[in-house]
């Protein structure tokens, strides 16, 4: 009897000491940051249908596949909060389809879907079909992309595990060419390294500000451009998933015209796979440089503010494309209200139209993220709008927009472009230049305005983001 009593006492002590410790560990797991990574394939099938490539001219048909296109997902969890960040190797993805994806991912506080702005993937917007009057979009393919986004997020969620994180920054101006005056580069690269608590690599996040268009407009092979090379180079070294986000790509931040040399010192030509691959490798080296100086960072709690915005559709070419069905996008009646508008049930000449889009601000512990739905100019991010304006500007006296990075007050900051939508270029109003005389003595209008909603996009969007961060209704 005494022996059984001693065994019982030891059992109770064991449960008290070690069972309680296990409960504490389980509770600690709920308060730790959880992270999971996954990717799915979104490469179009070429045998079934013609695939029109996006980003340059019309009627550029895909003739094959050089490397696959991916949907890459990161899921972050903390307690009951859960968010997903997704990047697509595409030219862009419209807001209504992203909303459709979110409806099929219940339980997430926020799902960010962005595009790298890849110019060697399929037309997903409608602007690069066989002619200016024909859409290049395959609706079945877009539905498949939605399906693969969901699959990537669900797989990343299933992969979630406790992690700790380091963040690194570096500058790489030598990897950017600014194609429009005034020359302002957003040359900061941000890298996040996720490791399991045992030290094993869990994944990397890379954010860089450059058009993936190194292969140029003559290429007809599907490719993720330099993004695919950078991802594969880093994956091979770190043995973990990589998620790549494009940021401030307006202006125009491009890999074209960047002088890249091979091992023998020969300058490589634009539009070649040799230059594209070398550029991707050099970008991976910049990531490694950022990681060498990386510091531990806390990414909890997970805070998100998101808001729908209505932006006037002043671009006559966009209006015509919508009227012809080349771009299929619901329009609303513009009444001057940034946050409210009624659907436009029919097109009326006397009624200005607007589009519904979104902005978001994420505060992940010490990291602030601006999620912007298009290709924003660096001047608007870095507070470098030209002052005074060039005399040739169409609106030289326009107020300078509130700079986005001035709104981000955390120790670390990052911008994800083409997030939640693709609305085209977001240009400082006092640098808008459609009418002669043109700025800087140009003979013709600069590129940019033709692919923008209008001159008022930047003032409205920057003000909306400022109000979002400040919590103003």
Indicate the radius of gyration in whole angstroms: 24 Å
Q: Which assembly state applies to the chains in this document?
A: single chain
Q: N-to-C terminal Cα separation, in Å?
A: 73 Å
Structural class by helix and strand composition = alpha+beta
Low-confidence spans: pLDDT under 50, at least 5 residues? 1-29
Mean pLDDT: 93
The main pleated sheet reads as: 9 strands, mixed
Portion in beta strands: 15-25%
Order of helices and strands: HEEEEHEHEEEEEHEEHEEHEEEEEHHEEH
Give the number of helices.
9
The portion of residues assigned to helices is: 25-40%
Give the total of beta strands: 21
Specify the overall morphology. globular
Protein architecture, described:
Helix 2 packs across helix 3 and helix 4 crosses helix 5. The protein has 473 residues and is an alpha+beta fold. The chain is globular. The N and C termini lie far apart (73 Å). The protein contains nine helices and 21 strands. The strands form five sheets. Strands 1, 3, 4, 5, 6, 8, 9, 11 and 13 form a nine-stranded mixed beta sheet that branches. Strands 14, 15, 16, 17, 18 and 20 form a six-stranded mixed beta sheet that branches. Helix content is 26%, strand content 25%. The protein has helices at 2-31, 95-103, 139-158, 226-238, 273-292, 316-324, 378-382, 404-407, 457-470, and strands at 34-41, 64-65, 70-78, 81-88, 110-115, 161-171, 177-178, 188-196, 201-208, 221-222, 242-246, 253-254, 295-297, 302-312, 332-333, 342-343, 353-364, 367-371, 375-376, 412-416, 425-426.
């Amino acid at each position: 009897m005494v022996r059984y009593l001693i065994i019982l006492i030891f059992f109770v002590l064991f449960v008290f000491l070690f069972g309680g410790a296990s409960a504490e560990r389980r509770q600690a797991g709920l308060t730790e940051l959880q992270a999971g990574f996954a990717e799915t394939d979104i490469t179009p099938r070429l045998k079934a249908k013609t695939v029109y490539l996006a980003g340059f001219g019309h009627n550029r048909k895909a003739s094959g596949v050089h490397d696959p296109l991916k949907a890459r997902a990161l899921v972050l969890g903390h307690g009951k909060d859960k968010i997903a960040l997704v990047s697509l190797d595409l030219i862009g993805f419209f807001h209504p389809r992203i909303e459709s994806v979110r409806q099929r991912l219940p339980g997430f506080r926020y799902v960010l879907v962005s595009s790298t702005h890849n110019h060697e993937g399929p037309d997903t917007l409608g602007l690069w079909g066989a002619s200016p009057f024909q859409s290049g979009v395959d609706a079945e393919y877009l539905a498949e992309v939605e399906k693969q986004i969901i699959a990537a997020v669900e797989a990343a969620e299933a992969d979630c595990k406790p992690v700790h994180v380091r963040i690194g920054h570096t500058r790489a101006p030598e990897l950017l060419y600014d194609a429009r005056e005034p020359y302002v580069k957003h040359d900061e690269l941000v890298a996040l390294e996720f490791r399991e608590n045992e030290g094993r690599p869990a994944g990397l996040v890379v954010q860089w500000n450059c058009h993936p268009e190194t292969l140029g407009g003559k290429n007809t092979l599907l490719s993720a451009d330099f993004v695919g090379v950078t991802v594969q180079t880093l994956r091979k070294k770190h043995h973990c998933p990589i998620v790549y986000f494009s940021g401030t790509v307006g202006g125009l931040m491009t890999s074209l015209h960047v002088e890249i040399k091979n091992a023998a010192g020969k300058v490589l030509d634009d539009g070649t796979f040799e230059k594209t691959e070398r550029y991707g490798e050099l970008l991976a080296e910049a990531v490694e440089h950022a990681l060498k100086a990386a510091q531990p960072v806390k990414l909890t709690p997970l805070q998100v503010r998101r808001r729908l915005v209505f932006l006037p559709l002043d671009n006559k070419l966009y209006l015509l494309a919508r009227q012809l069905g080349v771009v299929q996008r619901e329009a609303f009646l513009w009444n001057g209200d940034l946050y409210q508008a009624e659907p436009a049930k029919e097109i009326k000449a006397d009624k200005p139209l607007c589009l519904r889009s979104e902005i978001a601000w994420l505060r992940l512990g010490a990291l602030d993220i601006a999620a912007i739905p298009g290709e924003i100019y660096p001047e608007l991010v870095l507070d470098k709008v030209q002052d005074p304006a060039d005399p040739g500007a169409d609106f030289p006296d326009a107020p300078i927009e509130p700079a986005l990075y001035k709104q981000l007050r955390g120790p670390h900051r990052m911008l994800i472009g083409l997030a939640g939508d693709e609305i085209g270029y977001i240009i400082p109003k006092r640098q808008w230049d459609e009418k002669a005389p043109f700025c800087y003595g140009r003979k013709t209008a600069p590129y940019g305005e033709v692919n923008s909603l209008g001159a008022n996009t930047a003032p409205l969007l920057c003000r909306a983001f400022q109000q979002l961060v400040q919590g103003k209704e």
